[in-house]
Amino acid sequence: MGVAIDVQGLTKSFGSQQIWNDVTLTLPPGEISVMLGPSGTGKSVFLKTLVGLLKPDKGSIIINGDDLVTLKEADLYEVRKLFGVLFQDGALFGSMSLYDNVAFPLREHTKKSESDIRNIVLEKMDLVGLSGAEDKLPGEISGGMRKRAGLARALVLDPEILLIDEPDSGLDPVRTSYINQLFIDLNAQIDATFLIVTHDINTARTVPDNIGLLYHRHLAMFGPREMLLSSEEPVVRQFLNAQTIGPIGMSEEKDADELAAESGQELPPLPPIPLQLGTSDGTPRRAEKAPGEWCRENGVTPPPGSFESGNAGVPGVNQSRDEAATR
Fold first, then answer.
1. Contact call for residues 53 and 20 (beta carbons, < 8 A)
2. Distance in angstroms (rounded) separating the CA atoms of residues 91 and 88
3. Do 50 and 61 form a contact (C-beta atoms < 8 A)?
4. Domain count, the chain
């Protein structure tokens, strides 16, 4: 089962440039969380800080009672074994076959026999749909296959935390849908804690249990998916619904003249909240909640049409809003 990551007061700068300040959140164990934000808001820096590749200026990152910020290098090395990381471009070794790429962490960090390594590598490659491609080189396969090979490598040490950086980068919408489905199915199977950094709004609206939004050097909001998708907070509303009216401009923030020009304009209605993507075989994930559960528990009326199958954008989902309300 995945473990919780408790982040408190995290602050990071590069020289005089502050990336973000006082970021505080808890990634719940075994759940899928997504981190969003305009370009340049430090989402990838946040991932690297969580795994200890970058040191924050202030704050703490608590995992299993250990603060990664203050750990000695040897102890940090041990905690990092809890992590699997899928880098934005897959970060595969171009001169190695996919098999050797996936086997690399096992050969570097364990004393397993080649027979055991082979069994694990073939299992993980089958898990991500790459059986039969073991002998191919990264340059011989598509971008989507490279992403899946990188994911197989991230899984070989059976991580309890999986960090995923821009999985949709360079992928067309169909391949993005496939890899999103793969994340849902993997979470159901391995029950790890997932954190996905993405720009893809459809991914953010349909995949995660929780959503966070980095904006203007701080964490604008973090919480359950339905909380953010029903939020009236201007930057959250604008970003998650891909609207032009709001504080975000072509540069990160609109200037006073742009905001004044929008003054008095009627905001478009919030779109319906879609059903969350389910597993391929229909078995529920441990972290899965009934559609509309957060809204009901918190007295929030979701936008009209929410949780209807026609708004899910996910093939094979046929649960209506009325069915969801009786769950």
1. no
2. 7
3. yes
4. 1
Angle formed by the axes of helices 98-109 and 114-127, nearest 10°: 130
d(CA 117, CA 122): 9
Instruction: Give pLDDT tens digits for 223-279.
Output: 999 999 999 998 898 888 887 777 776 665 655 556 556 666 777 888 999 999 999
pLDDT value for 326:
37
What are the tens digits of pLDDT across the range 137-169? 999 988 888 888 999 999 999 999 999 998 888
Strand 161-165 relative to strand 83-86: parallel, antiparallel, unpaired?
A: parallel
Residues of 278-313 as b/e, b for ≥16 C-beta within 10 angstroms?
bbeeeeebebbbebbebbeeeeeebeeebbbbebbe
Q: Which CATH number covers residue 238? A: 3.40.50.300
Q: What H or E segment, with its residue span, contains residue 24?
A: strand 17-27
pLDDT, average across residues 59-65: 95
Q: Which domain holds residue 306?
A: 1-327
What pLDDT was estimated at residue 251?
Answer: 61
This prediction has a pTM of 0.87
What is the Cα–Cα distance from 142 to 261, expressed in whole angstroms?
Answer: 45
For residue 51, count other CB atoms closer than 10 A to its CB: 18
